[in-house]
Amino acid sequence: MRLYSGSMDHTIRVRAATETGSLAVTYTHNEDHGALALAGIQDAQLKPILLCSTNGNAVHLYELPSFADRDWSLYI
């Protein structure tokens, strides 16, 4: 199980449960703008995708767990 959190400090952090039951940061992804909201979906091939709305008026799509950019962004 993983917990994804976004922040205005330009990071998305991934936390995972440790053997003792606590959460530890296992990965930090740097975002050009602050992360306002995160949502998870699956694409047509059932691969996990993270949507990230940013303070720069954009929504980015990332493949999980690699955080590879899906080459699609929406600017509002």
From TrEMBL:
InterPro entries: WDR86-like. PANTHER family: PTHR44489, ZINC FINGER CCCH DOMAIN-CONTAINING PROTEIN 63. This is Uncharacterized protein. It comes from Oryza meyeriana var. granulata.
